[in-house]
Each structure stands twice: as C-alpha cells, then as structure tokens.
C-alpha cells in the first residue's frame, strides 16, 4: 500500500513538473521562435532598396554619358532666348506632344520652337526665289505672291506635322505590342514578382518586338523607384503614350495601388480586350481595302482589259474591210 502511495505521489510530482514546464515554454515561445514576418518584411525592404539603388546607378550612368556628348544646340538656345520663344511652352502642351513623339528633354523643345519660326521664313525665301527668280510659271505677280504666302503658311505647320506623324507611328508600334506586354506582365505578377521587377522584366523581353514600348516601361520602372507617389508614375505612362489601352491599364494599376484590389484578373481581362481591339483594327483595315482599290482598278486595270478584249475584234474588222 505504501508503494502504491509513493508511486502516486511520484506521478503527481512529474505531472506537475511537466505542466509547469509546458506553461513556461508556451509563455516564452514567442520570444524563442522569433518574428518571421518581420524578417521577411525586412528582406522585402532591402530588396526594394537594392532595386532603387540599381535604377539610380543606371540613371547616373546615362547622365554621365549624356554629359560627355557635345552641345550642338547652343546656337538654338541663344536663338530661342533672343526671341523669347519659351513663353509658348509654358503651358506644357508642346512638351507633352513632344514626349508622346518620343522627344524628351530641353533640346527637342528648343528645336521645335526654333523650327516653327524658321521654317515659314525659309519656305517664304525659297518659294520667292523659285517663282520670281527662275519664273517657272507664267502667272501674274499677284498669283505668285499668294503662292509664296501659302508656302510660308505651310512652313509654320511643318514641324507640327512631323511631330504628329512621329507620334502616330509610335502609338501604332505601342498598340501592336501592348497585348503581348500585358500577357508577360500578368505572368510576372502571378508568379509573385513585384510590380517594379515585373515592369523591368517585361521591358527587357518586349524590346525585341517594340523598342518604343520597352523605353516607356523602363522609364516607368525608374519613376517607380524615384517618385514617392507611385500613382504619379502610372499616370505619366498613360500621358507619355496617349494610347487608350495603356490608360485603361494605368487606371487598374492606380486602383490596385490605392485600394489593394487584385491585379491579376484585371490584367487578364485588359489583355484580352486589347487583343480584341488589335484584331478589330486589322479587320477594319482589311474591310477598307476594296474601296481603296476601286480607283486604281478603273485607271489601270480596266483600260488594259478593254484593250485586250477589243483589239482582236478590231483587227478582224479591219481585215474584213
């Protein structure tokens, strides 16, 4: 009986010791295990800082390379300052148009302002020397003067037409490559990559298809690293391109940044919509081809066809006579 009592007391002592030990472990476990979330957040923060440092290094290297180039626009700057032409670019509309055409920096603005003043003068002088000096047409001086003024008026719009044509070609190239870029961006985002890394990866891969789009995505990556407001970087992408499909994606990115909405589903839907838009534009061009071919067929094909059909009959009639 005493042995059973001793065994029972020993069991109770061991159970009490085990309970005390378990309670101590439970209370001390948060301090012993460590905070994995904090470590992972620190790792993400260090990765972001590393990306920003790399982008700053790239931009600094680009700036150093740019400073090594000569400055051929000194006379243009002096010309613009002399006639105080920079007032025309104060509203930012000219700068935005040049950015949409892929012309960035101060030099394109100076060249555009100088060309818009010098082109009418050059066209006026060239047309006046041609019409009044060489006298190629037999017309009264009044008609020649009207032609000279019209040439000068056309010269004022030539720089704008050049920028508009360049913008149209650039937007066309971006539209053609944008659905594929969205597919790549969707793959990168769903694989767990951050939006900055995804933009950088897509810019590297899409450069073989569209240099213009790769350039815009690279600029957006740099702005995401520099600007405090990330939404501003997305909005700048939409302004620089001027493409409706890009603006729709920018809106989704801004909403995801502001409200934390899932980005993968939005990118999938937008990629399909942009692909449908690209196909619709191709079908539209194909549908407009028959009316465009009507005039060339009337002018070039039908006369030859009539000649081939009528000539044998005309030869037979002439032989019978």
Automatic annotation (TrEMBL):
Keywords: Cell membrane, Membrane, Transmembrane, Transmembrane helix. GO terms for cellular component: plasma membrane. Signal peptide: none annotated. Residues 182-310 form the Type II secretion system protein GspF domain. It is a multi-pass membrane protein. It is found in: Cell membrane. This is Tight adherence protein C. InterPro entries: T2SS_GspF_dom. It comes from Afifella marina DSM 2698. The chain crosses the membrane at residues 12-32, 109-133, 145-163, 293-315. It holds the Pfam family T2SSF.
